[in-house]
TrEMBL record:
Annotated ranges, domain ABC transmembrane type-1: 186-382
Pfam families in the cross-refs: BPD_transp_1, OppC_N
UniProt-annotated location(s): Cell membrane
Domain of life, source organism: Bacteria
Keywords: Membrane, Transmembrane, Transmembrane helix, Transport
Cross-referenced InterPro entries: MetI-like, MetI-like_sf, OppC_N
Family classification: Belongs to the binding-protein-dependent transport system permease family.
Protein's recorded name: Peptide/nickel transport system permease protein
SUPFAM superfamilies the record matches: MetI-like
Primary residence: membrane
Regions that span the bilayer: 56-78, 188-213, 253-274, 305-325, 360-381
Length: 393
């Protein structure tokens, strides 16, 4: 039996079964609440939903946010002033924090110490005095400081007991608290990565964007320059550029000089990424429409092409920042980077360049710990942002 509908007679009007109601793009009547939530979500919201599934990246982001907030108030967080010397406690090892004394809860405290000198090795030995309980104070008055070099203050988050000591990370050869200097050094080591990547971003986007959009002889010259720069080993080039900075420069000029050096050497990879993206996007119809309407190249690149892969650029930046932090640390460690009185993690590590110092005073290597943690956190954050950059995968 034939189940097909009969064909209409020749010349007869065809029957239409399409609804004549106006099409509503936001109509979600046939969707579940979960589907409608995704359908109406913006690009940024979709990226956030995917990013927060990457637990390690979220934890890394919170950790880095706390560190960058901490550098704003490092004077308040540090137990001591950056330049405070405790001459009676030179090369004092880290103190342990205790909660109980003789079976009774006392709260966070440390035991006082007595120094003895080993006449054979001339090494200072510190012995805890169990009868000297020094309770740690919080939100207290301590060493005076200038907040960001502008406002006088003496309030600290944590302080030693009255007439006591609190060296949670030990002291250096001048009796300065290592923990306080690590907290102060974070301000330079962390900001130099952000300032350097901003400079690198500017060069990479402008040069790579022009090379990818226009092509031709300009693209050829840019690619040869990038190949030459990438073929030179990084550390010798850093050393050469850092060595030409005048020794008479102030610490602030040295800081900006190191930042410019790191930015000049890091833009090549970003420029190539931007160029490759623009080579593909410049053939799109909306680029041709913008050209026919008379838009300039700078507007087409800045308003139409770059925003199309900005999420990819942000992920690239988070991976590039650790390289700049390591570059500053390496230059300062080798004595060609920042110089005193500026304090960074690299400068702190110069205290541990001697094998004998490391053997007797290993806590001077503690500034290496925040460097490792920050590098790992930026890499994990970059992985999460790179995955979230394309939420439709």
């Amino acid at each position: 039996m034939n189940t097909h509908s009969p064909l209409p007679a020749p010349g007869a009007p065809l029957q239409h079964y399409v609804s004549t109601a106006p099409f509503d793009l936001q109509s979600v009547e046939a969707m579940t609440p979960e589907q409608s939530k995704v359908f109406q979500a913006s690009q940024l919201r979709l990226m956030w939903w995917k990013f927060r599934k990457h637990r390690v990246a979220v934890i890394s982001g919170i950790f880095l946010a706390a560190l960058y907030f901490g550098i704003l108030i490092c004077e308040f967080l540090a137990p001591y002033n950056l330049h405070t010397r405790n001459m009676d406690y030179i090369y004092s090892p880290p103190q342990r924090v205790h909660l109980f004394h003789d079976g009774q809860f006392v709260g966070p405290f440390v035991y006082g110490r007595q120094m003895t000198l080993d006449m054979d090795t001339l090494k200072r030995n510190y012995i805890e005095k169990k009868d000297d309980v020094q309770r740690i104070r919080f939100f207290c008055k301590g060493d005076s400081y200038q907040f960001w070099g502008l406002i006088e203050g003496d309030r600290h988050f944590v302080c030693p007991a009255e007439n006591g000591q609190l060296f949670l990370a030990g002291t250096d050869r001048l009796g300065r608290d290592v923990l306080s200097r690590i907290i102060y050094g974070a301000r330079i080591s962390l900001t130099i990565g952000l300032v350097g990547i901003s400079f690198s971003f500017l060069l990479g986007i402008v040069i790579g964007g022009l090379a990818g959009y226009h092509g031709g002889i300009f693209d050829l010259i840019v690619q040869r320059i990038i190949e030459v720069l990438q073929s030179i080993p990084s550390i010798p080039l850093w050393l050469a550029l850092a060595a030409i900075m005048p020794i008479t420069w102030s610490p602030i000029l040295i800081y900006f000089g190191i930042t410019v050096i790191l930015g000049l050497l890091d833009w090549t990879g970003l420029a190539r990424a931007v160029r490759s993206k623009l080579l593909a996007l410049r053939e799109e119809d909306y680029v041709l429409a913008a050209q026919l309407m008379g838009a300039k190249s700078s507007r087409i690149i800045g308003r139409h092409l770059i925003p199309g892969f900005m999420s990819h650029l942000i992920a690239t930046a988070t991976i590039s920042i650790p390289g700049m932090i390591l570059g500053e640390t390496a230059l300062s460690f080798l004595g060609l980077g920042l110089r005193a009185p500026i304090t960074s993690w690299g400068i702190l590590l110069t205290e541990a360049r001697s094998v004998s110092v490391i053997a007797f005073y290993p806590w001077l290597l503690l500034p290496m710990l925040p460097v490792i943690l920050v590098i790992m956190a930026f890499n994990f954050l970059g992985d999460g942002l790179r995955d979230a950059a394309d939420p439709y995968k």
